[in-house]
Amino acid sequence: MVRRNVGPANTHFSKQHFTNHMTCITTSVFDLFKIGPGPSSSHTIGPMKAAFDFLRQLQQLPAEVAARGQRIEIHLHGSLSATGKGHGTDRAIVGGLLGWQPDSCDPKALLGLLKDPLVSYSVDFQGKTTAINAQNFVFHRGRYDSPHANTMVLNLLDAEGQVLLEHEYYSVGGGFIYRKGERSDAGPECQPTFPYTTMNELKAHLLANNLTLAQVLMANEIALTGRSEKEIEARLDLIINAMHQAVRRGLRTRGVLPGSIRLQRKAPILFQQAKSLVQASDSFLIFLNAYCLAASEENAAGSIVVTAPTSGASGVIPGLTFLMKHHFHYAPRRMREGLLAAAAVGFLVKHNASISGAEMGCMGEIGTASAMGAAMLSYAAGGSIGQVEAAAEIGIEHHLGMTCDPIGGYVQIPCIERNAMGAVKAYNAYLLAMSGNPAMQKISLDNVIKVMKATGRDMSRKYKETSEAGLALSATEC
Ligand code: SF4
Questions:
Q1: What's the pLDDT at 13?
Q2: Which position among 83, 136, 382, 415 has the lowest Cβ density within 10 Å, counted as fewest Cβ atoms?
Q3: What is the CATH number of domain 41-179?
């Protein structure tokens, strides 16, 4: 039983002195934790959603305009052009134009798209059919003059090359997208019960209403999605189950990952090793490494994973929740509440900095996942809100400045091991926070997120998911 120093949920909430509804966090837990194909939320899930949206726009064109449509062109800019090939951006866009969606597409069929350069795919709208293949893509490599680091432009042209329909999309990390002209933080029409933009505001809600963090997150989720508490609990269980399915698949799948690196999967080997060393003091760490590698290798293979908060970082929280379930034997309620605490940290980073490797480097992905994991462990263990905050702060603090330089543009090196490292750091952040006095903590979560944003802004573009520097240039040694 987790004990917390709060009373029952109040029915009369205090909402004074908090952030206004226009700018507050309105992201749903299920937009942060999304089920979809790997290997990248910003380069795979986001582009698929954008292409699906473009298909819907095509389907709404006036019939006479649609009839003139001859060719679809897709322009990829910035990081999408630099690492889009390795991340499967082109395949994801073809899938979206075929009407596929991340949460329901067949990952094997997705991997098969564009394999044969001679094969074209039919895009149907308004009784019109147009063919699409690799020739329809333009990778604007080396050009970084777009409004966002992950920009894509989709257009429909007539026989003379005149544009009939054009939309510009930005993939801002974690599978979130927005269209040119929209607000990047545009949320649903409905508003949260407890509006906040910072950890300080969130803590003030807990104090003013004598509620737990999980209760506040749950009340907001109900208000934002219109779902009942029972439905939200069921969906949280579904998300945890999907995470664990990825871990289990990865633990039993051997072989080489897709791509030119020919990287051997390692999770099953580590898992066997951990089982054989079960009495040894370091078996616990080997188990955790195996779980994180398993989900990350599944992500690299393009299988179904859960963004947490991104696909590149989809091994950290699944690995930790697998540990919580199978080693700590936590009850489902405790797992769910831990996940809600993790979501709160993810929301704060997404809102006040970014969870995109193309904007923040890897500190935005693995750093955020590690902080979320540290908060989750602390909360599930019964930590106070001060300890949860300290755990998340420590998690981010020790990832500041971490670059994103994936070899060959594949989400493999350093990404897979980095998930295991992020989970181990999360665990240590949890231990440090739980044994410390939060009142003595010198740096707040809000402050470290500000530092993260400033560090990401100052980081050279070469280290932000472009594969133009760092480890990416050591590919010949692999
Ligand atoms: S280095 Fe980090 S941010 Fe970059 S692709 Fe890999 S996991 Fe994502």
A1: 53
A2: 382
A3: 3.30.1330.90
